Amino acid sequence: MNTLKCTRLFLIVFLTILGHASGVVAQSAGNQQAKKATKADAYSAYLFTYFTGGKKGEAIRFALSTDGYHYRALNNNLPVLSSAAISTTGGVRDPHILRGADGKTFYMVATDMNTEKYGWGPDTAMVLMQSTDLINWTSHTVIVPQVFKEFEGVNRVWAPQTIYDPKLNKYMIYWSMRFGNGPDKIYYAYANKDFSGLETLPKQLFFKPDNGACIDGDIVYKDGKYHLFFKTEGSGAGIKIAVSDKLTEGYVLIDKYIQQTKSPVEGAGTFKLNNSNAYILMYDRYTEGKYQFTRTTDLEHFTAIDNEVTMNFHPRHGTVMPITTQEAARLTAKWASTDDVMLSPRSGQVKKINIVLDSATHTLTLPVLPGTGLKAFNPAFNALPGITVTPTIAQNFTKGAVKYTATIKGKKPETYNVQVQENHNPVIEGYYADPEILYAEKTGKFYLYPTSDGFDGWSGNYFKAFSSANLVNWKDEGVILDLSRDVSWAKRNAWAPCIIEKKIKGGYKYFYYFAAAQKIGVAVANDPAGPFVDSGKPLVDSLPAGVKGGQQIDADVFTDPQTGKNYLYWGNGYMACAELNDDMISLKTGTTKILTPDRHYNEGTYVAYRKGIYYFMWSQNDTRSPDYTVHYGTSNSPVGPITVPANNVVIAKNTKEGIYGTGHNSVIQIPGRDEWYIVYHRFNYPKGITMGDAAGYNREVCIDKLEFNNDGSIKEVAPTHKGIKGVVLSK
């Protein structure tokens, strides 16, 4: 080796160890690579590599961001590599990506695993990949028990990652591995020179004090220390850190969980923000289909930043690597589309989950929040490196569509007609369902209490409230009840709340009934926005006598204006009713009655009173069905019997407008007026109808006018995107 080469190698190793800020750019996932940065090639973007899970989801996908917070999937969220071509099972998970010490070679490793075809194992292989352009990759598989006879009893080889060892000038791969039914442990070995296999016998990297299971290791080098993030299993579950001043030994456990959620998590991935001293720790909230980002400057204290992060995809266990403008442009030229560029406006006024693009006509419709000024509005399209969108300044949308041109380097420019509409449905941004509405005399405002939606399998565990003076502009009042924090008897499935305001001894009390773990509880507050305190036990936790099946969910509370008595209704597959005691947190013994109106009844009872008639509303079909529909019956009493008219549809899908799954409603009467509105959820528009069963837990809340015929029957409501005008309350 000549003198020049020796000098260059010495500088690389020296700068890597020191993590020199001005001349070295820290690599994603905490790996310390060295590269002299110039203005031309300084890191300015981020590459997120991930898999999605589910049907055909065990494959490597890419997404890009310019700031580390807002990500857009490349290749329309389709795989960028063929799992069948690179793996032994036809599936890969948990991809980890790394920039090499030379600054221009990239390494990626992944679990060789196909749960769709083979279930959960045994899984004994990992995939090693290498590239010089992030587009074209060579790959090799390593079947650990075949390569090393000492590990013939291994049945799990999970979540490999790579880090550069500057002392040996080699790449170390570390992963979790299990023998038989023993605990998973984190091992390491060194890759060979061409990154096609392992050249050293695997050794245990971390010795957990209790010898318990640990998986999903992620090593970050900072301030002369190696920080090993990992997930514990068995005796507690969550993410912890062990720290050492050596890469391959001496890790000491910091015995505390660092995830900022009570939900199950896995797949820690850490990266340093460009031009910042802050790091992002992200992880997979895998039971909910959610990903959480947290921020830290010391790798010890972490703050959740959920409201700062957006993605147009649902990742599972992945990693992020800072990249240059040139590298990002290369990726967009290969895998970006102008359609996706136009679907990513950054303006906070745009309802991003409701954007509609007609690709055939290149017509883009941007729904915006109430009160958005359209004479000078800038959608602020999020152009990634290698992409331009013009015009770049605010435009006048009051006279119709405005033409925008998107250009991806090396491809033909595409022009779009962009129109902006102020639609009031959905009324709150995001995924919510099962809305309850209240007018509070104490504050003179309306309040919405929905199920927090958007979680796979309805697995949300908290409730929020929203307030409004006019039913159009809504303020997020935050989380009012968190099962993991506030409820001792249930931690899952926070569903379908209802609420009532009571004036007691000159003050107001709010009784909030909610479903959790298929039981019904009650919490109490002095204000409609909380905080709410749980009663400490479920109010309803078993099927009523004579009922053979169904769930204890979907409570509704009602005060009979004629007698002043209070009633609770609930049920799934049946409609039950019982009188509440004066304390509002217990049921009067012997008053439970089954009121199921007909064989089509499913759930979501709501009771209202108007001009001597008691209206019972409920939802038919399954909430995952496009035909989820609200029906009604009437009675002369709050405890039935219920008469179901021949024409009993309250609200149903509107296929012409692309509105589906309309159901689980509540109703609000404007105080002092015979003016009524229906509050309900629907599938997300426009994507819901394309999502299959997942549409049933990606729902949104809407409000439309509710009207009655002269005979008291309900006019069927046509659900709309436009929604209602703002309500002005009488003084």
From TrEMBL:
Q: Give the matching SUPFAM superfamilies.
A: Arabinanase/levansucrase/invertase
Write down a Pfam family by its short name: Glyco_hydro_43
Please tell me whether the keyword Hydrolase is annotated for this protein: yes
Query: Per its UniProt entry, which superkingdom is the organism in?
Result: Bacteria
Q: Which InterPro entries match?
A: Glyco_hydro_43, Glyco_hydro_beta-prop_sf, Glycosyl_Hydrlase_43_Enz
Entries under Gene3D superfamilies matching the protein = 2.60.40.2340, Glycosyl hydrolase domain, family 43
Name the family the entry cites: Belongs to the glycosyl hydrolase 43 family.
GO MF annotations for this entry?
hydrolase activity, hydrolyzing O-glycosyl compounds
A single GO BP term for this record reads: xylan catabolic process
Source species, please?
Mucilaginibacter ginsenosidivorax
Q: Sorted alphabetically, which CDD domains does this protein's record hold?
A: GH43_Bt3655-like, GH43_BT3675-like
Protein name per its UniProtKB record: Family 43 glycosylhydrolase
Q: Where is the signal peptide?
A: 1-26
Could you list this entry's UniProt keywords, alphabetically sorted: Carbohydrate metabolism, Glycosidase, Hydrolase, Polysaccharide degradation, Signal, Xylan degradation
